[in-house]
Design brief:
Pfam families: PfkB (PF00294). The chain has ten helices and 14 strands. The chain is α/β, with parallel strands linked by helices.
């Protein structure tokens, strides 16, 4: 079973405007609410790929109820801790006609120690040995910056296959527990490598230096330039298809969901990378913050270029 965790979910309120200018009144053309939070996004994207998942998280108040309802509307097994007091955050995404997008993100409710204990206990009661666990997204509302590492350690006896998408000190600490997959961008890889990386050769060398941590897959996101992926002892350079970009919000979550899906379904690494990259490209064509056009993603798969590097 695939399980996702969202410690700081949100409702993403998208504001569509012709253009944004500082120090004047900017008129909103229309608004739309979508689900926010990387873990929840992965669950929804997996559902679009016809794969079930179980969503764990913490939600508060009326906004928290909306988050839970969004997930239920996608027929996802929701295992959230819910509290009446407080309010789950609302983020504001400003999308201009130029397809430029700016995010105004709330910090979210501070997570008390007791509620984290309840969530970890609920995960322990539901997760089976060798389940998949996706740990991704913002956890700045938690007093423990190493909360993902804590979750991994407390559930280590489950021998879970962990897919990790975090950054900074949290990423550095978590890789010591040998997650199955990590998905750093170039800046994040540079941070943990303590080098200002540029170019494929430098990236490959940095990935080789992470061998002692025994991470099976390291997928380095390079934005519009695709990704460079280390799978065991092999390296793959992945080039996405050219698409008309509406916004890049949620593309990384689609890519991660595609990786989880392909591995879960037993597909080979090249096919997995093709599916993940196509889903991400389809998401870039969308003007929403979550999801993608599955038919369009299927069309784009044949336009993904994958080169195995020596």
């Amino acid at each position: 079973m695939i399980n996702t965790v969202t410690l700081n979910p949100a409702v993403d309120r998208i504001l569509y405007i012709p253009s944004f200018t500082r120090n004047i009144t900017n008129r909103i053309r229309s608004t739309k609410d979508y689900l926010g939070g990387k873990g929840t996004h992965v669950s929804i994207n997996l559902k679009l790929l016809n794969t079930a998942s179980r969503a764990f998280g913490i939600a508060y108040g009326d906004t928290g109820k909306k988050v839970i309802q969004f997930l239920k509307d996608f027929q996802i097994d929701v295992q959230f801790i819910y509290e009446d007091k407080g309010e789950t955050r609302t983020n504001y995404l400003v999308i201009e006609d130029t397809n430029d997008c700016s995010i105004i993100a709330d910090r979210g409710m501070d997570l008390a120690e007791g509620i984290l204990e309840r969530l970890i206990h609920q995960m322990r009661m539901n997760l089976k040995e060798e389940d998949y666990l996706v740990l991704s997204g913002d956890a700045s509302n938690c007093s423990d910056p190493m909360v993902y590492n804590r979750i991994m350690k407390e559930l280590s006896d489950k021998r879970l296959r962990v897919f990790l998408d975090t950054s900074g000190e949290s990423l550095m600490e978590c890789i010591r527990s040998s997650p199955y997959l990590i998905k750093p961008n170039l800046d994040e890889l540079s941070y943990i490598s303590k080098k200002n990386l540029s170019g494929d050769e430098e990236i490959i060398q940095a990935l080789k230096e992470l061998d002692p941590y025994q991470v099976e897959i390291i997928a380095v996101s390079l934005g519009g330039d695709g990704s460079l992926v280390k799978y065991r002892d092999e390296f793959y350079r992945v080039y996405p298809p050219r698409v008309r970009v509406s916004n890049t919000i949620g593309c990384g979550d689609c890519y991660l969901a595609g990786l989880v899906y392909g591995i879960h379904e037993g597909k080979n690494i090249a096919e997995t990378l093709r599916i993940a990259t196509a889903a991400s490209a389809a998401a870039a064509e969308s003007n929403t913050s979550v999801g993608f056009d599955t038919d369009r993603a299927k069309q784009l798969e044949n336009l993904v270029t994958i080169k195995k590097l020596a």
